Amino acid sequence: MSVSFTDQQKQAIGARGTSLIVSAAAGAGKTMVLVQRVIDLICDPVDPCGVDELLVVTFTNAAAGEMRERISKALHALLAEHPEDR
Asked: Which CA distances in Å does 26 have to 1, 32, 63?
C-alpha cells in the first residue's frame, strides 16, 4: 500500500527519542499516521521497539479497535512480503 504523507505527517511518523501527541481534525489522517509510526518503530532495522514498550491512546474503544486492526493488517502484509524477516 502506497500512501502519500504530508511533511507534518512525515515529521510525526519519523520523530524519535520523545513522546508525541498527534492532534488534528476528523479525517485528517491521524490513525494512518499513528499506524505508520507504530509499524516503523517496531520494524526499525537498527533499533526496533517492542510492542510492549508503546502506549497509544485513542478516545474511543472503536478507534482503538480500528487501530489494532490496521496495525495487524500492516504487519501481516509485511510478513507476507518478507517471511524470513521476523
From this structure: 22, 12, 12
Reduced to 3 states, what is the DSSP secondary structure of residue 78? Answer: helix
- On whether the CB atoms of residues 51 and 42 are closer than 8 A, the answer is yes
With beta carbons less than 8 A apart as the criterion, state whether 66 and 38 touch. no
Q: What predicted TM-score, i.e. pTM, was given to this entire model?
A: 0.85
CB atoms within 10 A of CB 66: 14
Residue 60 C-alpha cell reads as 474511543
Q: Which of 46, 43, 47, 67 is nearest to 57 (CA)?
A: 67
| Rounded CA separation 73/62 (Å) | 16
- Residues 22 and 35 sit within 8 Å (Cβ to Cβ): no
Cell, residue 79: 510478513
pLDDT in tens, 19-51: 888 888 888 888 899 999 999 999 999 999 999
